[in-house]
Amino acid sequence: MDDYKILLSEKEIPQSWYNLVPDLPFRLPPPINPVTGKPLQADELRTIFPKSLVEQEMSEERWIEIPFEVRDILRLWRPTPLRRARRLEKYLKTKARIYYKDESVSPTGSHKLNTAIAQAYYNKKEGIKRLATETGAGQWGAALSFACNVFSLKCRVYMVKVSYHQKPFRKSLMRIWGAEIIASPSKLTASGRKILKEDPNCHGSLGIAISEAVEEAAKDKTTNYALGSVLNHVLLHQTVIGLEAKKQLKLLDEEPDFLIACVGGGSNFGGLILPFVKDKFKNPGLRIIAVEPFACPSLTKGKYEYDFGDTASLTPLIKMFTLGHRYIPPAIHAGGLRYHGCSPLVSALQDKDIIEAVAYNQIEVFKAAEIFAKAEGIVPAPETAHAVKAVIEVAKRAKKSQCILFNFSGHGFLDLASYDKFLNGELVNHAHPIKEIKAALKHLPKL
Questions:
Q1: Rounded CA gap, 442 and 447, in Å?
Q2: Domain residues of the chain, as ranges?
Q3: How would you classify residue 138: left for phi > 0, otherwise alpha for psi between -120 and 50, otherwise beta?
């Protein structure tokens, strides 16, 4: 029988993370201090990040060694399987060969743990006692809660209010591992109180939750901020996904024709595709597709400009595709993709036409997820389902035998309330928020 899954031994967990930056044929625009208007200096990030992560954020080194203590924890679930979606191929009657890197096997059910373990380790090593963070649908909040528990750190999670009510079981996970969860916007921070004063019924956004967590970390020397996506060091830690996938494909004598992943801030997308970008330079026919929600289409409808990473304008300015830091997306169920911007590294790849982007409405995304679950037996998270939708579309159009690799970034077992709404016909598509996007883009900072 042909294999359904390709496995590596624990000895083959990558020993170093891969940094794409030195291999780019262009320079990334630097982050900017919004007060001085000058490129940000490393010391300016030390208020909320440990020195080691700041160094990784600005590193020009191609390979950065993964500490033994981090690799030892990664062994709990890594290497993750590379699965051949044979039953989905049969259902679609496609000539394409579909593979997916199954990150749902982690203790928290998603890829987020790859960077959570690393960030908790470096903060613990530098004497930090507590981490504050944001979370959308709860995958990142659960991952950081687990990591903080491993390294005996306290953890406070500002969870976007709409997801706080939509995803109760992810709150349960966070509580099991000892985290404190706050619905955002909250009255605990100045930025939260300001938002609630303007809109008492605000259902929140990742940008708002980031503001609250950053504000808290900046005021307490024993507390640092941990970010689940967007920044270079986060995507760096996620490259274990793509590095393992390259080894697994090599065992099959396969090379991908398509690389596909969903995109919010960019961590799971970057984790899969960054180790393959050099291959794209040699083989322009390789297509790398980022998939985002129609209700929050930063790559497909945003502007490539400098903007704040948070709603309250507390962060440095980074050049990225953005819908405007004041944009609050509709309450779609893919809460992890409700971010107004995108990773500066992923954004630069989009600007240079190295990658491409597509956007879908949530009902067609859930339909694709249902097809996948019936064929492959795994229920995708609503975020992951965006990638599944794109894979199905590519596979249906395949006129010849082609290899598709996508990142199955997480399972949807804790998102079943969302699936109930879909199955009961209660899910709705949100109209394209063009007016709200235009209004938010008017507030882009002027340099």
A1: 14
A2: 15-66+112-232, 78-109+239-441
A3: left
Q: Tell me if the pTM is above 0.90.
A: yes
Cα–Cα distance, 324 to 309 (Å, whole number): 9
Q: Which two tokens stand for residue 249?
A: 């494909």
pLDDT band at 1 (very low <50, low <70, confident <90, very high): low
Beta strand segments in 213-334, E: 223-225, 258-262, 287-293, 303-308, 317-322
Sequence-separated (6 or more) residues with CB below 8 Å from residue 285: 257
Q: Dump pLDDT digits (tens) for 341-364.
A: 999 999 999 999 999 999 999 999
- In terms of Cα–Cα distance, which of 79, 68, 22 is closest to 232? 22
Interatomic CA distance for residues 277 and 355, integer angstroms: 9
pLDDT of 376-406, one tens digit each? Answer: 999 999 999 999 999 999 999 998 999 999 9
78-109+239-441 topology per CATH: Rossmann fold (3.40.50)
Strand-pairing partners, residue 101, are 82, 407
Angle subtended by helix axes 139-150 and 168-176, to nearest 10: 10
At the top level of CATH, which class does the domain 15-66+112-232 belong to? alpha beta
Sheet holding 356-360, edge to edge: 5-6, 82-84, 97-102, 403-408, 258-262, 287-293, 356-360
* Cis geometry, peptide bond prior to residue 34 (ω within 30 degrees of 0): no
- Asked if residues 388 and 82 have their Cβ atoms less than 8 Å apart, the reply is no
